Amino acid sequence: MNKRKIRVAAHLLLIFLPLFLSAQGALSGEPKYAPERYFTLSIYEAPSSPAIPARALSPPPLPSTPLPEIFTFRSLTRDFLKDAGEIWSYPFHIQTRDILPIAVLAALTGVMINNDEAIYKAFFDFRTGHAWVKSLSPVITQLGSVGAWAAAAAFLTVGLLAKDDKAVETAALASSAMLQSAILVTFLKGLFGRQRPSWAGEDDRWSGPVGFTGWFETGISAKYDSFPGGHAITAFSLATVVAMQYQETVWVPVVSYATAAGAALSRLTEGKHWLSDCLVGSVLGYVIGRMVVLNHRHRFRIAPTAGVDHRKFSLAIEVSLR
User: What is the CB-side half-sphere exposure of residue 242 using CA atoms within 13 A?
Assistant: First the structure.
């Protein structure tokens, strides 16, 4: 299979996956907008006045389209800044439960760094000896850059055309997660200044923050930005959001994470990264994507209701998780 056919297949997948998920949701009768009810507080009083139908005082039902306060530029900007604050302040409020996973990741990264040169050579030799890897690698690696943003755009387009709130929400969350990831990974790349294997002659070299100045020199703008992997963090940010949004469909998380893993590993076969770069980038992308989705779900929406039914006056405050 040549590269042209693989590119066409990849583009078709990006276009039809959101369309398929949207159609599947419509066929299953999934509501356009159904916030989860967290708790309800009700107060009842029995006046002597005649009963008035409850529907006369109750507010209209929730609209089938996304609530305005969720998908405005102002609300998206506010949520983005809140998420950014949580990401950048994380070192100052590490919880006890996070210490073990961080220690395991650090240990595993250390082991990989010590063996990165041998691992990189093995991957590159595998690519050299297999024609299908040569054809597939340049295409799947784009799913960690242009392809990821194209997928988010596809979800947005399908959501707007099909009036599918979930697809629009997925596009917004994925875009936010990928942008957060891009900002963080750019800072970390400048901080560590690790040379890419293609520049270092397959020798692992680190220059630290000093390497950041090399970004401005002609011809070596991508020399000192190997760690962590940018394509890996982008691919896993997108995959995590899609997997969490459509977790009720079993194959979606499987396909999402498998595709992201392929995009991350393709950076080795393309000679752009070390394996430890891809590992750390993938974990960061997963964490950021998950954080963005969970933060979005745990923001409150208050909807007071009132009415009179069976000679009783009722006042209720519904707090819904969004």
Answer: 33
What's the rounded Cα separation, in Å, for the pair 62 and 315?
18
Q: Which of 281, 178, 296, 287 is nearest to 245 (CA)?
A: 296
Residue 162 included in any domain: yes
CA pair distance 204, 197, nearest whole angstrom:
7
* Count of alpha carbons within 13 angstroms of residue 216, beta-carbon side: 4
Q: Give percent of the chain with pLDDT exceeding 90.
A: 51
- pTM of the predicted model as reported, rounded to 2 decimal places: 0.75
Question: Which residue type is seen at 139?
Answer: V
Domain of 28, in residue numbers: 3-36+101-297
What would the pLDDT profile of 172-213 be if each residue is shown by its tens digit? 999 999 999 999 999 999 899 898 998 767 788 888 887 666
Identity at 249, one-letter amino acid code: T
Other beta carbons within 10 angstroms of residue 89's beta carbon come to: 9
